[in-house]
Design goal:
Layout: E1 4-11, H1 15-26, E2 31-34, H2 43-46, H3 67-72, H4 82-95, E3 102-103, E4 108-114, E5 119-124, E6 127-136, E7 158-161, E8 176-180, H5 184-196, E9 199-204, E10 210-212, H6 220-227, H7 230-238, H8 258-271, H9 287-304, H10 308-313, E11 326-328, H11 331-334, E12 340-344, E13 350-353, E14 357-360, E15 363-366, E16 369-372, H12 381-384, E17 387-389, H13 396-399, E18 411-412, E19 415-420, H14 433-453, E20 459-460, H15 463-478, H16 507-519, E21 526-527
Parallel strand pairs: 1-2, 1-6, 2-3, 4-17, 6-19, 7-16, 8-9, 8-16, 9-12, 10-11
Antiparallel strand pairs: 4-5, 5-6, 13-14, 14-15, 18-19, 20-21
Helix pairs in contact: 1-14, 8-9, 14-16
The structure holds 3-acetylpyridine adenine dinucleotide.
Length: 531
């Protein structure tokens, strides 16, 4: 039987995959999206834990590629909940008739570049397919991290991971529950679970900074104002370093007086969520300024949390923002409840998981449900968990063993005709993901079109341009405080992973760079290299 041959295979049916399908199919290419899940949504399919919602305002965390789409869709809240985002993505898929070209329940096992035929041979859980181009739309935070806790398989209660949450609602009423980890996922879910559970034990290794979302129903006057000038509004956001509105202030914290800082931080605490870090321009580049913001948040924690010992444990000591800032609805307040207990893993390390719960600091906690909120093998995990082989059978996992190198987060040397959406070396996780992925989708689609029009068959990056680019990524990060703590931005959360900073900081210069590269006929990439 002959193999099915396609122009483009897209892996993943999340925000990126859906837009890629629409864009490439409209340009006349044969395209199929391969999706492991039984439905679309990517991140917004898998992360259904209680309280899951976006922490960038929905008027910005949404597609802008179609004016009618952005005019007709109405968000019910400022920050939309997971279910509504999933409904939106289904609406988009129906509106552009995308589902017919998505193969669900289809996991990609391996992808091998056949150098003689210049084709990718993709092996899935359902068979094989050949394609000229392979676009990995696999997401930056989609490979869940399950730490190797001793005895994990022995646990007999309900075991959950925030990044792989069941599709059926989980009800914790009358249950005792343990949650390990205090990153964004946990911080969003704790207040909701605490409302239901008989008792919630929170196991914390590192406290985190979190800013109140002050979420609420959509302000219809604001929505109408934005819709009346949507393209201009998007452009304004795009000019900000992180691609998010409200973060474009030029004033320096170190130049302001104490009263001015107090007022400014208070205003941002009450109104800006993630944009708290945009209160001043120097918060992420000057340690002294950063400490001013950090100590403001620590004081807030002390004001909110009634038990001073618990407040102290919940107060982070590291640079604010160097781990991804969290945004919450009632997180610190949840620790004032009688049914919530915080356990510090630094003084009570987890000894093992037992059949009934877990042992930490010699004490056994028996629980009906055990939740891991232990994050992801970020930015590279979704790629290295697939057996991807490029020229001469080189494996991507091996090539990235000492650090992920990519040109612009789009192309990888030795892996011709393979593109990554929001790959390492692009602003991705340090930007508003939706416009960032739209930028990549458009760049990749235009590149493939340009190759068709210019009779080019194979495009690839080179080691030299990757080295140069990743050096720049790190030089830019060195100008900031981002490298000053352990975080998934630099691979510190995964033992076996190279410790290197992966996102490019700065949306406008990055956009300018990739636009220029495209305008100069994909400068830095090599076409039709002979084997
Ligand atoms: O994961 P995390 P997450 N023993 O890596 C702890 C995005 N997101 O799923 O800090 C004990 O942030 C770990 O401790 P430590 C967002 O970008 C967005 O919460 O390593 N603890 C940490 O506390 C976010 O940043 C939204 O010491 C262990 C926690 O587990 C990213 O996804 C919502 C451990 C993991 O926190 C990831 O968030 C949710 C161990 N062995 C997520 N291993 C939005 O609002 C890890 N931990 C859009």
């Amino acid at each position: 039987m002959s193999l099915r041959k396609l122009d483009v295979v897209v892996v993943g049916a999340g925000f990126s995959g859906l837009y890629l399908l629409h864009k490439l199919r409209s340009s006349g290419f044969s395209v199929t999206v391969l999706e492991k899940a039984d439905q679309l949504g990517g991140t917004w399919h898998w992360n259904r834990y209680p309280g899951a919602r976006c922490d960038i305002p929905s008027l910005q965390y949404s597609y802008q590629f179609d004016e009618d789409l952005q005019q007709e869709w109405n968000w019910s809240e400022k920050y939309s909940a997971q279910q509504e985002i999933l409904e939106y993505l289904n609406h988009v898929a129906d509106r552009f008739d995308l589902k017919k070209d998505i193969e669900f329940n289809t996991e990609v096992i391996s992808a091998r570049f056949n150098e003689e035929k210049s084709l990718w041979e993709i092996k899935t859980s359902h068979g094989e397919v050949e394609t000229k181009f392979c676009v990995m739309a696999t997401g930056c935070l989609s490979a869940p991290n399950t730490p190797d806790f001793k005895g994990l398989d022995d646990y007999e209660g309900q075991f959950l991971h925030t990044g792989k949450w069941p599709q059926v609602p989980v009800d914790f009423t009358d249950e005792s529950v343990a949650i390990i980890g205090t990153g964004s996922s946990s911080i969003q879910s704790i207040p909701v679970i605490a409302e239901q559970a008989k008792h919630l034990y929170v196991f914390q290794r590192t406290p985190n900074y979190s800013i109140p979302s002050n979420n609420g129903p959509m302000d219809h006057a604001e929505e109408a104002e934005v819709k009346s000038r949507y393209p201009e509004f998007r452009k304004e956001n795009w000019e900000n370093g992180f691609g998010i509105a409200g973060m474009a202030i030029e004033e320096m914290a170190v130049e302001d007086d104490e009263q001015g800082r107090k007022e400014k931080f208070n205003h941002h605490w009450e109104n800006e969520g993630l944009g708290f870090l945009g209160a001043y321009a120097d918060l992420m580049i000057d340690k002294e300024a950063n400490e001013m913001a950090a100590s403001f948040v620590r004081n807030k924690v002390k004001e909110i949390v009634k038990n001073p010992e618990v407040a102290e444990l919940l107060s982070p000591k590291f640079t604010i923002g160097c781990k991804r800032l969290c945004v919450d609805t009632g997180y610190f307040e949840a620790f004032n409840r009688d049914n919530v207990t915080l356990i510090d893993l630094n003084t009570n390390p987890i000894d093992c998981i037992t059949s009934k719960g877990l042992m930490a600091g010699q004490e056994e906690y028996s629980v009906d449900s055990l939740i891991l909120a232990t994050g992801f093998d970020a930015m590279t995990g979704a790629l290295t968990r697939i057996d991807i082989r490029g020229r001469k059978g080189i494996s991507l996992k091996d090539q990235w063993k000492d650090g992920a190198k990519s040109y612009l987060g789009l192309g990888i040397s030795n892996f011709p005709n393979l593109f990554t959406v929001t790959g390492p070396g692009s602003p991705s996780v340090l930007s508003n993901m939706v416009p960032s992925l739209e930028l990549h989708v458009e760049w990749i689609s235009q590149c493939i079109e340009w190759m068709r029009d210019n009779n080019k068959k194979v495009i690839e990056s080179t080691k030299a341009v990757e080295e140069e680019w990743m050096t720049l990524v790190n030089e830019v990060a060195d100008l900031t405080v981002y490298k000053s703590c352990n975080s998934w931005y630099n691979g510190s959360n995964i033992d076996e992973k190279a410790k290197e900073f992966l996102p490019f900081i700065g949306v406008p210069p990055y956009t300018e760079k990739i636009t220029e590269v495209a305008e100069q006929n994909y400068q830095g990439f090599v076409f039709d290299k002979t084997n």
